[in-house]
Structures are given as structure tokens and as C-alpha cells.
Specification:
A hairpin with a 2-residue loop joins strand 6 and strand 7. The protein starts with 6 loop residues before the first strand and ends in a 16-residue tail after the last strand. The chain has a 6-stranded antiparallel β-barrel. It has a two-stranded antiparallel sheet with strand order 4-5. It has no helices and 8 strands.
Length: 136
């Protein structure tokens, strides 16, 4: 499988941090994918599939949050970036959309990470008046 990035993460994070919840990132989309953002603003949250581009190798067992004081657990029971396929998946708050830039909060990706895809969190869909549903 060959993946082509649709966007790039832009933020101030270049190394591991403990709390990603308040990190605000911009997903800067390639121009050809901008039409695919149509009506995405109807959602409060989106899934972001991205690449851990700075990490190499993987470990079957890791200390959660890179804290050696925490007991080892399986990598699939953590959000560790040291994964077999270096893929990240995070549910993030959708802050805004302007042109080819989607602002999100809570993405655990480093500056420069490739974005492979995004998907709406469908349980929170908000329709506009043309769709005949109540807005937020």
C-alpha cells in the first residue's frame, strides 16, 4: 500500500510531551483536497489518521507516557508512537476551517507529521438549516 499525504501537521511540538489535550495544530491541506472539506464544519470532532514520521522501530511492550515508573504494557494498549506501522489515529476537537487549513485541538502528532486521512466523528453531526436539522 502506498500512501500519499493529504495534509501536513503544523504545530510547535517537536518532542514527546505529557499532555496533548490543549495542543492546537493546523492541518495544512494540499490544494487538490480542499473540496473534500465541504461541510466538515458540521462536526465538533474528527478522526485524524497520521504518520509518526520521527519514530523508528517499535516495541511490543512500553511504559505508558514514556514513564519508567509506570508498569510495562503492550504497545496496543497505549498511544505510544513506537508502533509496527507508525500510524496514528486520534479523535480531535475541530476548532475551525479556513481555506486549506483545518485547526484542531488534542492531536498527538509532531510538527511536520503527514496526515493520511480524516473522518468525521458521526455521532456529533450538526446539520445546517438546508439539511433540516438543528444546529449546535
Amino acid at each position: 500500500m502506498r500512501l500519499k499525504p493529504i495534509a501536513t501537521v503544523v504545530n510547535t511540538v517537536s518532542e514527546d510531551i505529557r499532555d496533548w489535550d490543549e495542543v492546537e495544530s493546523r492541518l495544512v491541506f494540499e490544494k487538490e483536497y480542499v473540496p473534500g472539506l465541504y461541510k466538515l464544519e458540521r462536526f465538533k470532532h474528527i478522526w485524524v489518521i497520521f504518520g509518526f514520521h520521527k519514530k523508528r522501530g517499535w516495541s511490543a511492550r512500553v511504559h505508558p507516557m514514556h514513564d519508567p515508573n509506570r508498569p510495562l504494557v503492550g504497545v496496543f494498549a497505549t498511544r505510544s508512537p513506537k508502533r509496527p506501522n507508525r500510524l496514528g489515529l486520534t479523535l480531535v476537537e475541530l476548532v475551525s476551517i479556513r481555506g486549506n487549513v483545518v485547526r484542531v485541538r488534542g492531536l498527538d502528532a509532531y510538527n511536520g507529521s503527514p496526515v493520511w486521512d480524516i473522518k468525521p466523528y458521526e455521532k456529533e453531526i450538526v446539520y445546517d438549516s438546508q439539511d433540516r436539522r438543528k444546529s449546535r
